[in-house]
Amino acid sequence: MSAMSRIEREKKAHNLFTRFEGNPILTADHWPYAANAVFNPAAAQLDGQTLLLVRVEDMRGFSHLTVARSPNGLTDWTVDSEPTMTADPSTHEERWGLEDPRIVWLEEQKQFAVTYVSFSEGGPIVSLAITKNFRTFARLGGLLPPEDKDACLFPRRFDGRFALIHRPIVRGEAHIWISFSPDLKHWGDHQLLIPTRAAYWDCHRVGLACQPIETPQGWLIFYHGVRSTTAGQIYRTGLALLDLQRPWKLLRRSDEWILGPHAQYERVGDVGDVVFPTGATVNKETDELRLYYGAADCTVAVATTRMTDLLDYISASPEVDD
Ligand code: BMA
Protein backbone atom coordinates (compact mmCIF):
# COMPACT_ATOMS: atom_id res chain seq x y z
CA MET A 1 0.00 0.00 0.00
CA SER A 2 1.18 3.51 -0.72
CA ALA A 3 1.87 6.09 1.95
CA MET A 4 -0.73 8.49 0.48
CA SER A 5 -4.27 8.08 1.85
CA ARG A 6 -7.18 7.86 -0.57
CA ILE A 7 -8.35 11.35 0.45
CA GLU A 8 -4.86 12.77 -0.14
CA ARG A 9 -4.66 11.01 -3.47
CA GLU A 10 -8.07 12.32 -4.57
CA LYS A 11 -6.96 15.84 -3.72
CA LYS A 12 -3.79 15.30 -5.74
CA ALA A 13 -5.80 13.93 -8.69
CA HIS A 14 -8.13 16.91 -8.51
CA ASN A 15 -5.29 19.45 -8.55
CA LEU A 16 -2.92 17.71 -10.94
CA PHE A 17 -3.73 19.79 -14.04
CA THR A 18 -4.05 23.54 -14.52
CA ARG A 19 -6.10 24.71 -17.47
CA PHE A 20 -4.46 27.42 -19.59
CA GLU A 21 -6.25 30.71 -18.94
CA GLY A 22 -6.39 31.38 -22.70
CA ASN A 23 -8.45 28.21 -23.37
CA PRO A 24 -9.78 27.26 -25.79
CA ILE A 25 -6.58 27.82 -27.76
CA LEU A 26 -8.06 26.94 -31.17
CA THR A 27 -11.64 27.26 -32.40
CA ALA A 28 -13.35 27.08 -35.80
CA ASP A 29 -13.21 30.90 -35.83
CA HIS A 30 -9.39 30.72 -36.08
CA TRP A 31 -9.62 28.59 -39.20
CA PRO A 32 -8.60 30.05 -42.57
CA TYR A 33 -11.50 28.20 -44.25
CA ALA A 34 -15.04 27.21 -43.23
CA ALA A 35 -15.20 24.51 -40.58
CA ASN A 36 -17.78 23.32 -38.08
CA ALA A 37 -15.44 22.23 -35.29
CA VAL A 38 -11.69 21.78 -34.59
CA PHE A 39 -10.77 19.27 -31.88
CA ASN A 40 -8.85 16.12 -30.80
CA PRO A 41 -5.33 17.26 -31.87
CA ALA A 42 -2.13 15.19 -32.00
CA ALA A 43 0.97 17.06 -30.77
CA ALA A 44 4.68 17.10 -31.62
CA GLN A 45 7.68 19.37 -31.36
CA LEU A 46 9.37 20.29 -34.62
CA ASP A 47 11.85 23.04 -35.58
CA GLY A 48 11.53 24.72 -32.17
CA GLN A 49 7.75 24.96 -32.48
CA THR A 50 4.77 23.08 -31.12
CA LEU A 51 2.84 21.43 -33.91
CA LEU A 52 -0.74 20.27 -33.55
CA LEU A 53 -2.37 18.04 -36.15
CA VAL A 54 -5.98 18.99 -35.57
CA ARG A 55 -9.14 17.12 -36.50
CA VAL A 56 -11.32 19.49 -38.50
CA GLU A 57 -14.97 18.63 -39.07
CA ASP A 58 -16.43 20.14 -42.21
CA MET A 59 -20.04 21.14 -42.86
CA ARG A 60 -20.91 17.66 -44.12
CA GLY A 61 -19.86 16.18 -40.78
CA PHE A 62 -16.75 14.56 -42.32
CA SER A 63 -13.30 15.21 -40.85
CA HIS A 64 -9.78 15.86 -42.17
CA LEU A 65 -6.49 16.83 -40.46
CA THR A 66 -4.82 20.25 -40.52
CA VAL A 67 -1.56 21.49 -38.97
CA ALA A 68 -1.41 24.45 -36.56
CA ARG A 69 1.97 25.72 -35.31
CA SER A 70 2.92 27.94 -32.37
CA PRO A 71 6.30 29.22 -31.16
CA ASN A 72 5.33 28.75 -27.49
CA GLY A 73 2.67 26.01 -27.64
CA LEU A 74 -0.01 28.23 -26.12
CA THR A 75 -0.63 31.29 -28.29
CA ASP A 76 0.16 32.78 -31.73
CA TRP A 77 -1.03 29.76 -33.69
CA THR A 78 -0.58 29.69 -37.45
CA VAL A 79 -2.95 27.32 -39.21
CA ASP A 80 -2.13 25.78 -42.63
CA SER A 81 -4.20 27.60 -45.23
CA GLU A 82 -5.51 24.31 -46.64
CA PRO A 83 -6.24 20.86 -45.18
CA THR A 84 -2.96 19.00 -44.53
CA MET A 85 -4.27 15.41 -44.80
CA THR A 86 -7.57 14.66 -46.47
CA ALA A 87 -9.38 11.41 -47.07
CA ASP A 88 -9.25 9.75 -50.45
CA PRO A 89 -12.95 8.96 -50.90
CA SER A 90 -12.19 6.66 -53.83
CA THR A 91 -10.78 4.16 -51.31
CA HIS A 92 -13.06 1.98 -49.25
CA GLU A 93 -10.87 2.73 -46.22
CA GLU A 94 -11.26 6.51 -46.18
CA ARG A 95 -14.82 6.85 -47.39
CA TRP A 96 -16.07 9.12 -44.61
CA GLY A 97 -13.00 11.06 -43.50
CA LEU A 98 -9.97 11.02 -41.18
CA GLU A 99 -10.24 11.51 -37.41
CA ASP A 100 -8.40 11.67 -34.07
CA PRO A 101 -4.64 11.43 -34.90
CA ARG A 102 -1.79 10.62 -32.51
CA ILE A 103 1.90 11.35 -33.23
CA VAL A 104 5.02 9.58 -32.00
CA TRP A 105 8.68 10.00 -33.00
CA LEU A 106 10.05 6.71 -34.36
CA GLU A 107 13.69 6.53 -33.22
CA GLU A 108 14.77 3.95 -35.83
CA GLN A 109 13.11 5.62 -38.83
CA LYS A 110 13.93 9.14 -37.59
CA GLN A 111 10.45 10.15 -38.71
CA PHE A 112 7.12 10.84 -37.08
CA ALA A 113 4.44 8.13 -37.15
CA VAL A 114 0.88 9.42 -37.37
CA THR A 115 -1.82 6.93 -36.43
CA TYR A 116 -5.33 8.13 -37.20
CA VAL A 117 -8.82 6.83 -37.75
CA SER A 118 -9.96 6.26 -41.34
CA PHE A 119 -13.71 6.15 -41.38
CA SER A 120 -14.46 3.28 -43.75
CA GLU A 121 -17.84 1.95 -44.82
CA GLY A 122 -17.14 -1.01 -42.55
CA GLY A 123 -16.47 1.24 -39.53
CA PRO A 124 -13.43 3.02 -38.11
CA ILE A 125 -9.97 1.65 -39.04
CA VAL A 126 -6.57 2.57 -37.57
CA SER A 127 -4.28 3.83 -40.36
CA LEU A 128 -0.61 4.81 -40.34
CA ALA A 129 1.28 7.58 -42.12
CA ILE A 130 4.98 8.45 -41.78
CA THR A 131 6.36 11.95 -42.19
CA LYS A 132 9.45 14.07 -41.55
CA ASN A 133 7.88 17.48 -41.98
CA PHE A 134 4.05 17.27 -41.85
CA ARG A 135 3.95 18.48 -45.44
CA THR A 136 4.46 15.19 -47.27
CA PHE A 137 3.31 11.85 -45.89
CA ALA A 138 3.94 8.22 -46.81
CA ARG A 139 0.53 6.64 -46.25
CA LEU A 140 0.91 3.00 -45.22
CA GLY A 141 -2.82 2.23 -45.03
CA GLY A 142 -4.97 0.40 -42.49
CA LEU A 143 -3.32 -1.74 -39.82
CA LEU A 144 -6.12 -3.90 -38.44
CA PRO A 145 -9.76 -4.62 -39.33
CA PRO A 146 -12.61 -2.37 -38.16
CA GLU A 147 -13.97 -1.49 -35.66
CA ASP A 148 -10.77 -0.01 -34.17
CA LYS A 149 -9.56 3.45 -33.08
CA ASP A 150 -7.56 5.38 -30.41
CA ALA A 151 -4.19 4.01 -31.54
CA CYS A 152 -0.54 4.99 -31.18
CA LEU A 153 2.81 3.30 -31.75
CA PHE A 154 5.65 3.29 -29.22
CA PRO A 155 8.83 5.09 -30.32
CA ARG A 156 10.89 1.89 -30.56
CA ARG A 157 10.79 -1.92 -30.81
CA PHE A 158 10.58 -4.35 -27.90
CA ASP A 159 12.39 -7.66 -28.48
CA GLY A 160 12.52 -6.79 -32.18
CA ARG A 161 8.82 -5.96 -32.51
CA PHE A 162 6.94 -2.70 -32.87
CA ALA A 163 4.03 -2.27 -30.45
CA LEU A 164 0.68 -0.59 -31.06
CA ILE A 165 -1.85 0.43 -28.44
CA HIS A 166 -5.35 0.51 -29.88
CA ARG A 167 -9.02 0.11 -29.03
CA PRO A 168 -10.82 -2.59 -31.01
CA ILE A 169 -14.47 -3.30 -30.31
CA VAL A 170 -14.59 -6.95 -29.28
CA ARG A 171 -17.99 -8.56 -28.54
CA GLY A 172 -19.39 -5.03 -28.30
CA GLU A 173 -16.92 -4.11 -25.55
CA ALA A 174 -14.44 -1.19 -25.72
CA HIS A 175 -11.17 -2.05 -23.94
CA ILE A 176 -7.56 -0.98 -24.65
CA TRP A 177 -5.38 -3.63 -26.37
CA ILE A 178 -1.73 -3.94 -27.40
CA SER A 179 -0.51 -5.72 -30.56
CA PHE A 180 2.90 -6.41 -32.08
CA SER A 181 4.50 -6.36 -35.53
CA PRO A 182 7.94 -7.09 -37.03
CA ASP A 183 7.41 -4.64 -39.91
CA LEU A 184 4.60 -2.15 -39.06
CA LYS A 185 2.37 -4.02 -41.52
CA HIS A 186 1.55 -7.47 -40.12
CA TRP A 187 0.08 -7.33 -36.62
CA GLY A 188 -0.52 -10.12 -34.13
CA ASP A 189 -0.07 -11.37 -30.56
CA HIS A 190 -3.04 -9.19 -29.56
CA GLN A 191 -3.37 -8.76 -25.79
CA LEU A 192 -5.85 -6.99 -23.57
CA LEU A 193 -4.02 -4.15 -21.80
CA ILE A 194 -6.44 -1.85 -19.93
CA PRO A 195 -10.05 -3.01 -19.58
CA THR A 196 -13.08 -0.99 -18.47
CA ARG A 197 -13.80 -1.16 -14.71
CA ALA A 198 -17.26 -2.02 -13.41
CA ALA A 199 -18.89 0.79 -11.41
CA TYR A 200 -15.99 3.25 -11.87
CA TRP A 201 -15.97 6.48 -13.90
CA ASP A 202 -14.42 4.42 -16.76
CA CYS A 203 -16.97 1.58 -16.66
CA HIS A 204 -18.42 1.78 -20.19
CA ARG A 205 -15.56 2.51 -22.61
CA VAL A 206 -11.84 3.20 -22.43
CA GLY A 207 -9.38 4.28 -25.15
CA LEU A 208 -5.81 5.56 -25.39
CA ALA A 209 -5.52 9.36 -25.07
CA CYS A 210 -2.16 10.84 -26.20
CA GLN A 211 1.07 9.06 -27.22
CA PRO A 212 2.87 6.94 -24.56
CA ILE A 213 5.26 9.08 -22.47
CA GLU A 214 8.57 7.46 -21.49
CA THR A 215 9.77 7.91 -17.88
CA PRO A 216 12.38 6.07 -15.77
CA GLN A 217 9.49 4.36 -13.90
CA GLY A 218 7.72 3.13 -17.03
CA TRP A 219 5.45 4.33 -19.84
CA LEU A 220 2.89 6.86 -18.68
CA ILE A 221 -0.38 6.20 -20.46
CA PHE A 222 -3.19 8.72 -20.46
CA TYR A 223 -6.53 7.21 -21.43
CA HIS A 224 -10.12 8.35 -21.74
CA GLY A 225 -12.84 6.61 -19.80
CA VAL A 226 -16.57 6.86 -20.35
CA ARG A 227 -19.48 6.50 -18.02
CA SER A 228 -22.96 6.49 -19.58
CA THR A 229 -25.50 8.27 -17.43
CA THR A 230 -29.17 9.10 -17.83
CA ALA A 231 -28.02 12.57 -18.96
CA GLY A 232 -25.54 11.19 -21.56
CA GLN A 233 -21.93 10.05 -21.68
CA ILE A 234 -19.13 11.71 -19.67
CA TYR A 235 -15.60 11.51 -21.14
CA ARG A 236 -12.83 11.88 -18.55
CA THR A 237 -9.08 11.15 -18.45
CA GLY A 238 -7.18 8.65 -16.32
CA LEU A 239 -3.56 7.56 -15.95
CA ALA A 240 -1.79 4.21 -16.11
CA LEU A 241 1.83 3.01 -15.94
CA LEU A 242 3.26 0.25 -18.16
CA ASP A 243 6.52 -1.63 -17.67
CA LEU A 244 9.36 0.09 -19.54
CA GLN A 245 10.83 -3.03 -21.21
CA ARG A 246 7.60 -5.06 -21.32
CA PRO A 247 4.84 -2.55 -22.17
CA TRP A 248 2.23 -5.31 -22.30
CA LYS A 249 2.47 -5.36 -18.50
CA LEU A 250 0.17 -2.89 -16.72
CA LEU A 251 1.84 -1.87 -13.44
CA ARG A 252 -0.46 0.78 -11.96
CA ARG A 253 -3.73 2.51 -12.74
CA SER A 254 -5.33 5.59 -11.23
CA ASP A 255 -8.52 5.04 -9.25
CA GLU A 256 -9.54 8.63 -9.95
CA TRP A 257 -9.88 10.57 -13.17
CA ILE A 258 -7.30 13.35 -13.41
CA LEU A 259 -9.09 15.62 -15.89
CA GLY A 260 -12.84 15.78 -16.41
CA PRO A 261 -15.31 18.20 -18.00
CA HIS A 262 -15.59 21.22 -15.75
CA ALA A 263 -14.98 24.45 -17.71
CA GLN A 264 -17.86 25.79 -19.77
CA TYR A 265 -16.06 24.97 -23.07
CA GLU A 266 -15.76 21.33 -21.91
CA ARG A 267 -19.33 21.02 -20.70
CA VAL A 268 -21.11 22.63 -23.66
CA GLY A 269 -20.49 22.02 -27.35
CA ASP A 270 -21.45 19.65 -30.16
CA VAL A 271 -20.97 16.79 -27.69
CA GLY A 272 -21.09 18.15 -24.14
CA ASP A 273 -19.14 16.82 -21.17
CA VAL A 274 -16.16 15.64 -23.20
CA VAL A 275 -12.45 16.12 -22.55
CA PHE A 276 -10.57 14.05 -25.13
CA PRO A 277 -6.75 14.35 -24.94
CA THR A 278 -4.89 13.17 -28.03
CA GLY A 279 -1.50 14.91 -27.78
CA ALA A 280 1.14 15.86 -25.23
CA THR A 281 4.48 17.64 -25.16
CA VAL A 282 7.11 17.31 -22.43
CA ASN A 283 9.77 19.89 -21.59
CA LYS A 284 12.51 18.03 -19.71
CA GLU A 285 14.18 21.26 -18.57
CA THR A 286 11.10 22.74 -16.93
CA ASP A 287 9.52 19.36 -15.97
CA GLU A 288 6.29 20.53 -17.60
CA LEU A 289 3.85 18.29 -19.47
CA ARG A 290 1.20 19.90 -21.64
CA LEU A 291 -1.86 17.88 -22.48
CA TYR A 292 -3.73 18.99 -25.61
CA TYR A 293 -7.34 17.90 -25.83
CA GLY A 294 -10.60 18.28 -27.68
CA ALA A 295 -13.23 20.03 -25.57
CA ALA A 296 -16.88 19.07 -26.15
CA ASP A 297 -16.01 17.96 -29.73
CA CYS A 298 -15.77 21.66 -30.67
CA THR A 299 -12.47 23.29 -29.74
CA VAL A 300 -8.84 22.59 -28.75
CA ALA A 301 -7.71 23.26 -25.17
CA VAL A 302 -4.53 22.67 -23.17
CA ALA A 303 -3.82 21.88 -19.52
CA THR A 304 -0.41 21.66 -17.86
CA THR A 305 1.19 19.72 -15.03
CA ARG A 306 4.61 18.62 -13.80
CA MET A 307 6.10 15.26 -14.66
CA THR A 308 7.22 14.81 -11.05
CA ASP A 309 3.64 15.34 -9.83
CA LEU A 310 2.30 12.83 -12.36
CA LEU A 311 4.90 10.27 -11.28
CA ASP A 312 4.23 10.88 -7.56
CA TYR A 313 0.54 10.41 -8.17
CA ILE A 314 0.80 7.24 -10.29
CA SER A 315 3.32 5.76 -7.81
CA ALA A 316 0.66 6.23 -5.11
CA SER A 317 -2.05 4.64 -7.30
CA PRO A 318 -2.98 0.98 -6.94
CA GLU A 319 -0.77 -1.75 -8.37
CA VAL A 320 -2.47 -3.96 -10.90
CA ASP A 321 -2.30 -7.72 -10.36
CA ASP A 322 -1.51 -10.01 -13.28
C1 BMA B 1 -15.32 9.08 -29.39
C2 BMA B 1 -14.59 9.53 -30.64
C3 BMA B 1 -14.07 10.95 -30.51
C4 BMA B 1 -15.06 11.88 -29.87
C5 BMA B 1 -15.66 11.25 -28.61
C6 BMA B 1 -16.70 12.11 -27.94
O1 BMA B 1 -15.97 7.87 -29.62
O2 BMA B 1 -15.44 9.44 -31.74
O3 BMA B 1 -13.73 11.42 -31.77
O4 BMA B 1 -14.39 13.07 -29.51
O5 BMA B 1 -16.24 10.02 -28.97
O6 BMA B 1 -17.80 12.39 -28.78
UniProtKB/TrEMBL annotation:
Keywords on record: Glycosyltransferase, Transferase
CDD domains linked: GH130
InterPro entries, per database record: Glyco_hydro_beta-prop_sf (IPR023296), Mannoside_phosphorylase (IPR007184)
Organism domain of life: Bacteria
A molecular-function term among this protein's GO annotations: glycosyltransferase activity
Protein name: Glycosidase
Keyword Glycosyltransferase attributed: yes
Family per similarity comment: Belongs to the glycosyl hydrolase 130 family.
